[in-house]
Amino acid sequence: MAEVGWPGRRTQGATDPFNSALNYGYGILYSQVERALVLAGLDPYAGFVHIDRPGKVALVYDAVEEFRQTVVDRTVMAVFNRGTEIELDERGRMTEASRRDLAAKVLARLEAVEKYDDKRHPLRAVIQMVERRLAAFLRRAAANLRTVRSELVSAMNCLLIYDIPDDGLRTKIATSPGLRG
C-alpha cells in the first residue's frame, strides 16, 4: 500500500485516502448491522465484547467484526487495486463525489450473492440471518436460565425447609406461597 501513502491503520480523524475509505465503508456497514440487530429484536447498545457505554452501540461493534473484511475491506482494496482515486478536500476528508462513489460500491457489495447455509443469498440478507440466529440463541439461553433459576430456587427452598429444626416453623414455611417447589 506504499503507492497510496498508507501510514497504517487510523480510525477517527483519518486524513489519508485509504483509512478514510475504510472508515466511511465501516460507517455504512455499521448502519446495516444495527438495522439487522433491531429487526431481530436485539438491543444494539448491549454488547458482549465491547464495553457498554452511554450512546455507544456496543452490540453493533461486536457484530460488525464478522462482516468487515467481506463487505468493506474487500471493496476498498478493489477500489485501490483498480486505480480509482479517493479524493480528499483541504481538511483531509473525502470529497462528496468520492463518498458517493464508495457508498455505491459498498452498497453493491451488500447486494452481492454469497453462499451461506448451502444456499446463495445477498450479503445484506446474510447479515440479517446471522443476527436472527444470534437473537434465537439468546432467547433459548434466557429460557434455559429461567428454568435453571426456577430449579435453583426450588432446591434452595427445600434446603431451607429441611434445615429448620422446629416442626411448627417448618410446616409454616412449607405451606407459604412462593416457597413451594
Q: Can you put this structure into words, describing what you see?
A:
This protein is mostly helical. It has six helices and two strands. It has helices at 17-39, 58-64, 68-81, 96-111, 123-163, 167-175; strands at residues 113-116, 119-122. Strands 1-2 form a two-stranded antiparallel sheet. Strand 1 (113-116) and strand 2 form a beta hairpin. The longest helix has 41 residues, at 123-163.
Question: Which helices and strands occur, and which strands form pairs?
Answer:
Layout (H helix, E strand, L loop, with lengths): L16 H23 L18 H7 L3 H14 L14 H16 L1 E4 L2 E4 H41 L3 H9 L6
Helix pairs in contact: 1-2, 1-3, 1-4, 1-5, 3-4, 5-6
The radius of gyration computed from the alpha-carbon positions, rounded to a whole number of angstroms, is 26 Å
Helix content: 55-70%
Which regions have little confidence, pLDDT < 50, spanning 5+ residues?
168-176
Beta-strand portion reads: under 5%
As laid out across the biggest beta sheet, the strand order is 1-2
Class from helix and strand fractions: mainly alpha
Mean pLDDT: 82
How many helices? 6
Sheet having the most strands? 2 strands, antiparallel
Distance between the termini: 66 Å
